[in-house]
Every structure is written in C-alpha cells, then in structure tokens.
C-alpha cells in the first residue's frame, strides 16, 4: 500500500485520511489488496455478472452478517471506525500477520464516486487462502445466469441507464460507455 500511496500521492484526494480509504481506492482501481468487492445493489451485481462476455455468468450472493458471525462471532457488519478493523490493519502493519482466518465483511465509507455509485462493500480476507465458497457455504450462494437471459438483462440495465459511466464516473468510464453505446447502435 505504501508504494501505491507514494506513487499516486498527487492523484489521491486530500480528504482521504486513513488506510481503509486507500485500500478501497486501490481495490477499485485494480491494485492488489486483501479486499474483495461486493455491492448492495442487485442491478450493480447484474452489471458485473453479464456486461462482459462470459461463458458462465454468475451472480454471487453473500450474507455478510452470517459471514461475520462465522468469522469473528459477531452478527453485524463493521465499518472503518470499528476497533476490529483498526486492530486488523495495525496487526498487519506492525507484525505482518493477518489476525483472522476467515474473511470479514465491512461497509467502507463511500469516499470516492466509484464506491458510492457501485454501492460498494468489501470482504477483508483472512489468512486462510481458500475462496469464500470453499470456506463455508453457509454464507455464500452462486446463482448461475442462463445464457439465454443475458441479452435481456443487458437491455434491462441499459433501460435503467446503468452503464460504465454510471458506475465509473470518470473519463475512462464515459469513453467505455460511448464505445458500447455506439457499437450497440450499429
């Protein structure tokens, strides 16, 4: 994270005060982190499941309360002000150790437009390298999307104006949106 913060210093808004904001920013721009993106919005989840050409589109549903109960014995979703997350980050920074075996669900502050528009949430992964699905099927479910529904779902999302620019409100998102719009119009 320190390399990202140093090299992107003039690109990071001054309102970013802590490591969780930096980790969320890194994750949303494709840098490697221990975070996995989730959305509170079914439409946003559908966008990511079907918009790119995928042979087996799947919608993943996570019960964050059950995940956290299984992970740390608490039936709630944490935010960055919670001591658990402060301790989590401090343990990694000071000792190089991840303090939890299983992932933990958290609600980050929506400090940038990407996270806000995507209604973003995260799981912070523990020291067990298994995927969420491998670790425990009590808190996650895969819902396959039949290929014959993909075109209709894309049309549904377009009618709601849920596109690249809506979810990535920057010049790159606008450019991708325009490419798709005019390619689809031909």
Structure described in brief:
The protein is 47% helix and 14% strand. It has 186 residues and is an alpha+beta fold.
What's the structural blueprint in terms of helices and strands?
Layout: H1 2-7, H2 19-28, E1 35-39, H3 42-50, E2 58-62, H4 64-72, E3 78-79, H5 83-95, E4 104-107, H6 113-117, E5 120-124, H7 132-135, E6 140-144, H8 147-159, H9 164-167, H10 171-185
Parallel strand pairs: 3-4
Antiparallel strand pairs: 1-5, 2-6, 4-5
Helix pairs in contact: 3-8
Please characterize this protein's 3D structure.
By secondary structure, this protein is an alpha+beta fold. It has one domain. The protein has 10 helices and 6 strands; from the N terminus they run ααβαβαβαβαβαβααα. The strands form 2 sheets. It has a 4-stranded mixed sheet, sandwiched between helices. Helix 5 links the parallel strand 3 and strand 4. The model has no long low-confidence stretch (mean pLDDT 82).
**Main sheet?**
4 strands, mixed
Number of strands: 6
Helix/strand/pairing category:
alpha+beta
Strand fraction equals 5-15%
Quote the distance from N terminus to C terminus: 43 Å
Globally, the shape reads: globular
Taking all Cα atoms into account, the compactness measure Rg is 18 Å
Which parts are unreliable, with pLDDT below 50 for 5 consecutive residues or more? Answer: none
Average pLDDT figure: 82
Total individual domains = 1
Helix segment tally:
10
Q: Helix fraction?
A: 40-55%
